[in-house]
Design brief:
binds zinc ion, elongated, 29 strands, alpha+beta, single chain, 14 helices, nine-stranded antiparallel sheet, Jelly Rolls, TIM Barrel, eight-stranded antiparallel sheet
Length: about 525
């Protein structure tokens, strides 16, 4: 019993370590984590104390300045630029909630997006005039990201996203996960008044383990006092990184943000090289990218899918130009007898051995409220039927609906007597039923079917919902298609929206699927990037 528990724990440790290795962001030059120090408000001590301290250790930090503060030590701030420190924007007058008595006459509650935009641009202009640098990094004053009050409250995160390459918060608790982070909402952890060994070191140890990016935030630099990052803490921290943990990349917010952005782009760039088929449903139903036929076809019924006509010829199914996961989406307003399909040839891997690939898409529906009685397959790819050489996901026929993945090889091998699914355990054991079922109207759920080494002895298929592994099963039987007849059916008996249907020629791993799920842009943006060099 004890040994069994030990083995289980050991196996779990191995799995979680394995996942962690995969998840590590590819930091430059073998670094395992990143650390940025940042200081707000252009306090006098940033120049008076900080300049010498950081020059002595050859460390570059990010100063989020107020132009007014810069004017008080202009030569010093010019020296800071010359020393390689980054100058970021921290607004012009430091507005905060009017609940701070000193901020009452510049309360964020009285701002609008227009007045905030004007202020951020003016601050950048003044910094440019004073220091000849254009800030690309921003820190929210008081870490507050709103303007206005009550029903007129707006987030100004989108504005920061538009004007800067990053926006940092304040009094946050987490390090930034490069794969997940929102550049416009970088987490900034307080370092004022902190002691290294007990309060900062654990954060860095954690970052090394997770491959994350720590952004520390402070104000004054000195021996003591309010809102002051202690020089002793900084000395300890710099020694720790430079002498004990050179695998931590010490760099400014702007430098790390730039690297993370490029690294993520490079990953998706590589991924698009493995793309066989992709429909964004932005301009219409024709695939944006395909190695086979790009056009969608309508057949009068599932049984007549050998005689479809190009285009969508069903009034209940349309492209809605917005409201997609990104851009438009394919919208099924009602269940229809007619079926839509793309030809599968060259749009999905197929061959005698070792077929691998990933089918990725987004669904938006409430299965219980939207679907009509009966089975529904948002995606089904086959040359003959759901139980004979097929990849699909379906919702079961009655409420509450189960969400299932089915991958079936040749019917004559796994079910030679063609026993009905209801009486056939071999059918059920070929399914993976999702534990996670986060579907709802107006909510987009990401789904991925991964097939790996089909037509080889180790063949298997795995199922993911919102980047979370739902299970896998071996595919022991052969998988044979008449490839000319193979179809990618979209929305069989479906009611709801489908978006971003992509088929890759590679079996993506869990972390890669998560990255697609976390991704803030459509795949089409990577394709456009690929076109212009
Ligand atoms: Zn501030």
């Amino acid at each position: 019993m004890g040994r069994l528990i030990l083995i289980v724990i050991f196996a779990w440790t191995l799995t979680s370590l394995g996942a962690q290795q995969d998840n590590r962001f590819p930091w430059p030059e073998g670094y395992k984590a990143a650390l940025s120090l940042s200081f707000d408000d252009a306090r006098l001590s940033n120049v008076d104390v900080g300049l010498d301290l950081f020059r002595k250790h050859d460390v570059q930090v990010t100063y989020y300045v107020l132009p007014g503060g810069v004017k008080q030590r202009l030569d010093g701030w010019k020296q800071a630029v010359a020393d390689g420190h980054e100058i970021g924007n921290h607004t012009l007058v430091h507005p905060c909630s009017g609940n701070f008595p000193w901020a009452r006459n510049k309360a964020l509650e009285n701002y609008t997006l227009t007045s905030m935009r004007a202020e951020l641009i003016e601050s950048n202009r003044q910094i440019m005039e004073l220091l000849q640098v254009e800030p690309v990094s921003f820190a929210y004053s008081c870490g507050q990201t709103f303007v206005g009050k009550g029903k007129d409250t707006r987030s100004y995160v989108p504005l920061v996203d538009e004007l800067f390459t990053s926006g940092r918060g304040w009094l946050d608790e987490a390090a930034n996960d490069p794969w997940f982070l929102d550049f416009a909402q970088l987490q900034g952890i307080e370092m004022d008044g902190k002691e290294f060994e007990k309060e900062i070191k654990p954060i860095l140890e954690n970052a090394i383990e997770n491959g994350s990016w720590v952004v520390l935030a402070g104000h004054e630099i000195g021996e003591g006092g309010n809102q002051t990052t202690r020089t002793g803490m900084l000395e300890d921290l710099i020694r720790y990184v430079k002498e004990e943990h050179p695998e931590i990349w010490f760099a400014t917010v702007g430098e790390v943000a730039g690297f993370v952005r490029n690294g993520k782009n490079a990953f998706f760039q590589e991924l698009t090289a493995d793309l066989l088929f992709y429909s964004s449903f932005d301009q219409g139903p024709t695939a944006d990218f395909s190695l086979g036929d790009a056009v969608i076809n309508t057949a009068r019924s599932y049984d007549q899918s050998q005689t479809g006509k190009p285009g969508i010829h069903v009034p209940e199914i349309e492209i809605s130009t917005d409201g997609g996961r990104f851009g438009g989406a394919l919208h099924f307003r009602n269940k229809t007898r007619e079926v839509l399909y793309y030809n599968a040839k060259n749009n999905i891997s197929y061959g005698d051995s070792g077929i691998s690939g990933t089918i990725s898409f987004w669904l938006s529906l409430n299965p219980e409220k939207d679907l009509e009685p009966g089975f529904c397959d948002p995606i089904q790819i086959t040359d003959s039927g759901y139980n004979d050489g097929a990849y699909w996901v379906d919702f079961s026929d009655k409420n509450p609906r189960l969400f299932r993945m089915g991958v079936f090889g040749d019917l004559n091998e796994w079910n030679p007597d063609n026993i009905s699914p209801d009486d056939n355990p071999k059918f059920t054991e070929r399914l993976v039923v999702a534990n996670d079922r986060p579907f709802d109207r107006g909510v987009w759920t990401h789904v991925a079917i991964v097939f790996d080494e089909i037509n080889n002895p180790q063949a298997k298929a795995s199922f993911y919902v919102n980047g979370i592994f739902q299970g896998e099963r071996p595919v022991s039987e052969s998988f044979t298609w008449d490839v000319e007849q193979a179809r990618i059916y979209v929305g069989l008996n479906y009611v709801g929206k489908i978006d971003e249907l992509a088929i890759f020629k590679k079996a993506l791993n869990q972390e890669e699927i998560k990255r697609i799920y976390f991704r803030e842009n459509a795949i089409s943006e990577m394709l456009n990037r690929r076109k212009d060099p």
